[in-house]
Specification:
Two copies of one chain form a homodimer. In chain A, helix 1 crosses helix 2. The first copy, chain A, folds into two domains: 5-53, RecR Domain 1 (Helicase, Ruva Protein, domain 3, Orthogonal Bundle), CATH 1.10.8; 63-192, Dna Topoisomerase Vi A Subunit, Chain: A, domain 2. Helix content of chain A is 43%, strand content 13%. In chain A, the strands form two sheets. In chain A, strands 4-3-5-6 form a four-stranded parallel beta sheet. In chain A, strands 1-2 form a two-stranded antiparallel ribbon. Chain A has eight helices and six strands; from the N terminus they run H-H-H-E-E-H-E-H-E-H-E-H-E-H. In chain A, strand 1 (55-56) and strand 2 (63-64) form a beta hairpin. Chain A has 198 residues and is α/β, with parallel strands linked by helices.
Chain lengths: 198, 198
């Protein structure tokens, strides 16, 4: 016996969160125990509500509280441009950058035979159907610059090109504000590969 | 707009936890979003239940689900020994060490005029009454070895000694398994001060 059982239970439940070890879980549990009741129930409610309300957009697979996400519902977005990303968080990052005015398609993963992620799991048949039905003009593949992301990009371009859509890949190279000296070899070779006339 | 409002709300609520910045809060929120529903409601329930069920022991101030905590309810504990600590977590640490068979008194703080913690806030009048009523033989002061903790220990000894109780302070010195070379000056001077004949 060290803590009351309700506290032990809370510490154990918090310890299941990613990156939260037993010490942090204990610290968080004590914080909650000594927080005002309204704040604790606010957090508990926020967790349950997010879980309950948020589903996937039926068009693009991004997070949505309705059948369509806020981006797909927005009449100002260019629906002839489709940007393919691996993760819903990527959409948020691109939206924050504010440089893109088209719509998205979220794969929820990348091709990975080891993890059992094939074209079906990534909703690629649905993506191809969407390209045909909505007469998408350009498919911008913004999967991650690693083996799985590149393989997915290659697969997508092979599948989508026959449908008459232009398939592009976002550029990889030196990050703006970066320093040549600190760039890794792969990034440097990608930057050289993608060089443009000035 | 970047995330659905229910998710933004959850990220904001998680970000209020200590040591959880916006990035970690987002990571945790996504983890919860993609966790099975039962796990999320289990965590939410654990939070609410801990908050609801756990109060303070009416005798010692430690965490308790009933009016008395498990330690004060235990007939095997020596009720003539009382160990004074600053924080409920200190009780758990001492219990884990398993070297103490008496009962506790939790101050929930230490004397600190700046933070507005006087004897009243630390329940010291109640402690003195308990010493008299239960005829406590020894009061072991285990407040932290810092300015506030030492001041509290001094204050307690002055208040409690006239009641005929023996007041002791836990020993400070080198941690077992430690190395003289790495000990700080204060710990070393305390270790010298507390030297014993062998």
């Amino acid at each position: 016996m060290s803590y009351p059982s309700a506290l032990e239970k809370l510490i154990k439940a918090l310890g299941k969160l990613p990156g939260i070890g037993p010490k942090t879980a204990t610290r968080l549990a004590f914080f909650l125990l000594f927080s005002p009741k309204e704040e604790v129930s606010h957090l508990a409610k926020a967790m349950l509500e997010a879980k309950e309300k948020i589903g996937r957009c039926s068009r693009c697979g991004y997070l949505a509280e309705d059948s369509l996400c806020a981006i797909c519902q927005d009449p100002k977005r260019d629906r002839s441009l489709l940007c393919v990303v691996q993760d819903p968080r990527d959409v948020a990052v691109l939206e924050k950058a504010g440089a893109y005015k088209g719509t998205y398609f979220v794969l929820h993963g990348a091709l990975s035979p080891i993890e059992g992620f094939g074209p079906e799991e990534l909703h690629i048949p649905r993506l191809l159907k969407l390209i045909e039905e909505e007469k998408i003009k350009e498919l911008i593949v913004a999967t991650n610059p690693n083996v799985e992301g590149d393989a997915t990009a290659l697969y997508l371009s092979r599948q989508a090109r026959p449908l008459g859509v232009k398939v592009t890949r976002i550029a990889f190279g030196l990050p703006v504000g970066g320093d040549l000296e600190y760039a890794d070899a792969l990034t440097l070779s990608r930057a050289l590969e993608g060089r443009r006339e000035i």
